[in-house]
Amino acid sequence: MDAIRAVNLTKVYQGKAEVEALKCINLSIKSGQLYTLLGPNGAGKTTFLKIVSTQLLPTSGEAYLLGYDVVKQPEKVRRHIAVVPQDSIAYHNLTPWEYAYYFAKLYGVPSPKVKAHAELALKTVDIWHLKDRACGSLSGGEQKRAIIASALSSNASILMLDEPTSGLDAIARRHVWESLTKIVKDGKTIILTTHIMEEAEMVSDRLAIMNKGKLVAEGTREEIKSLSKEKFRVVLEGKIENNDLFKDGSRVARFGNKSILFFNSLNESLKVVERALAKGLKAEASPITLEDVFVDLIGSDLVGNQNH
Asked: Rounded to an integer, what distance in angstroms lies between the CA atom of residue 147 and that of residue 103?
């Protein structure tokens, strides 16, 4: 069964000027997956999440969660979801145990099962050993995992996380990623929004790239990468006195004394690495990244936005 299905989903905000935050989105998200909505700020990710979690009404179109209409059957939808909003902050005087325990009670978990649900949630996100410490004494990543544990303790079948690692350092992000993959392995469905390319690449079973309210691409990580005609990249570092190294690349991105060249084949990329090393440059070949494809698909739009 689809965890979420959107049919021509559209949202227009009225004001001095109309803003079409979602433009006829058609999307199916299967149960048991970690599904990522990837896009720049203002892409429509949070608007989509708010509609399917019954926090916001669509202008037109339809959305269903586990077969329930999010507009006509909101109470039934809410029984199956737990939401961690963007930039959610832990109350410093509460402990992770109190977060998980009281959220489970508020969600309506039967009293005999509340402690077991809270314990399982805290162990899943690996902060059981911190359960009695005030959140104010925990790191940002530990606090975020406490918040995720509170949602998990509800035993909701679908968790919706809006940019859950925003503001965290690399180590804290990876702890959160590990927790999310554990949750999905245990049979839950996670809908995640992010603008962090590495996050989307590391944790997603499937993902959708959104921009300006439109669905730009959808599929597995490899399916998304296959949309690019280039398959390999070479990163060069050093002073390049002439451009003969660039002549074989189909695309070039330059950042000071660093350049990224894109190639259709591994052989082409390795030949350029060999020539670059002979010139005393640093050079490394690798497959293209999700970020490369993202920039290729919507990069010109982002540059255009910066010019206005």
From this structure: 10
